[in-house]
Amino acid sequence: MTTTDWLEELRGERPDLGRASTAGRVADVLRTRITEGHLRPGTRLSEEDIGAALGVSRNTLREAFRLLGHERLLVHEFNRGVFVRRLTVDDVRDLYQVRRILECGAVRRLAERLASAAAPSPTADLLAPVGAAVEEGESAAAQGAWVAVGTANMNFHQAVADLAQSPRVTEAMDHLLAELRLVFHVMDAPQAFHATYLPENRAILELLEAGDLAAAESAIATYLDAAEAQLVEAYAAAAARG
Amino acid sequence: MTTTDWLEELRGERPDLGRASTAGRVADVLRTRITEGHLRPGTRLSEEDIGAALGVSRNTLREAFRLLGHERLLVHEFNRGVFVRRLTVDDVRDLYQVRRILECGAVRRLAERLASAAAPSPTADLLAPVGAAVEEGESAAAQGAWVAVGTANMNFHQAVADLAQSPRVTEAMDHLLAELRLVFHVMDAPQAFHATYLPENRAILELLEAGDLAAAESAIATYLDAAEAQLVEAYAAAAARG
DNA sequence: GCGTGAAGGATTGTTCAACAATCCGTCAAT
DNA sequence: ATTGACGGATTGTTGAACAATCCTTCACGC
């Protein structure tokens, strides 16, 4: 192992060091509680109450709110406070519109990169995260761990977007999926929703492994269309009830 | 005009009402100075100095910094302060990677929407902003207003991305172009750079108007490849000098 | 000369307290 | 039922204070 390897490894741990910010840690705590559904959409987050509960000052808490606001998990209404975001049906449609562009675009860019390199199919290490997510989902389903099935499904699509090998696409997809979690917790049975699409994930993986990226892209598109339709219907019904 | 029309119009003015925040206005001021090149990349923004100059407290200024940090115009280094972002060559490549996905994706989504509606070509009002940006650029070039040529070019690509009719894509493209402005100000002659591509913009517009969206998408892709190559070369040279 | 380490100043991180501005619910009046 | 005024509660913003950290300088020893 050379010196530059050492340094390169250390670079990877730099983000952990920067985590010392109090506001960042507060944001982490709130983010988890939101994405895991303990804080329902529409809930108002009182500066005083939460500040007292977490033992941080209002100013620091405000910085945490800003962080989550830009991730679209919170909305900030002037002179009224911050609320856990409540997504409209139009928001859900838009999220899937962006997913179509991002996920299909990632596969398409990968295809063009392979074409210019005269490679027949993606290398195994590129697809490793995708395959891992597929198996993670299947084994979770076998054990009946439905929550884990949901996160595995998210990991799968995150891995697909990561095929673009673009830090900005990765981050955008990360935020996008966090937003989508807001929707899932309003539904009745998000478990069944995710389990439905496990076979499709494997089919997409196999198309990617076979190097038929055009078919994979098209499979993702139809997957997203179906998921959007099902989700919009279920969400509209849930929203109508309250 | 019915009552609901009135109300719908008013909804569009809601964002203007929320603009009363001091931190938001401070962020606006700083954003302009950064994107217009008055604050060079790498510059450190002292909390005390800027707070005194703008007449706001450190806490408020911090909120403004946080806002711009999430737009990637500023970088925040713990215990060291905030700096105007200095983009690496890899950042430039990534920005163009995302542009390819977003702009081409927007056209592609538009094509699929037209196909499902059995429409031969996009409606005129959809392409109006694109056409306006093209003419804006050409008339600015005729008058030698090179700065205006640059903004017109940005408007063109923003308009292309807006074809996706997705609020999130619009916002992402907005932030992306703001980031790119950081690069242009480091170059020697950004004017000539933008002027080169005026004819291409018109060609893309005509392909869109003709309804040949596949050709338009491919034209955008080659445009972006060329622009990226030229920009990366110029930027690397400028970065090497200092 | 050169790398090491300590002292000092400057800047940021965080908290606290205070006041102004704004919103929300209540209640009375028309 | 709508309007208008009042009062409590919450947020917006400020200023000051202290701890933690970084950067510079300078002296020291090899």
UniProtKB/TrEMBL annotation, chains A, B:
UniProt keyword Amino-acid biosynthesis present: no
This protein's record includes keyword RNA-binding: no
Pfam families: FCD, GntR
Alphabetical list of InterPro entries matching this protein: GntR_C, TF_FadR/GntR_C, Tscrpt_reg_HTH_GntR, WH-like_DNA-bd_sf, WH_DNA-bd_sf
Residue span, HTH gntR-type domain: 20-87
Record's keyword terms, sorted: DNA-binding, Transcription, Transcription regulation
PANTHER family named among the record's database cross-references: GNTR FAMILY REGULATORY PROTEIN, TRANSCRIPTIONAL REGULATOR, GNTR FAMILY
Protein name: GntR family transcriptional regulator
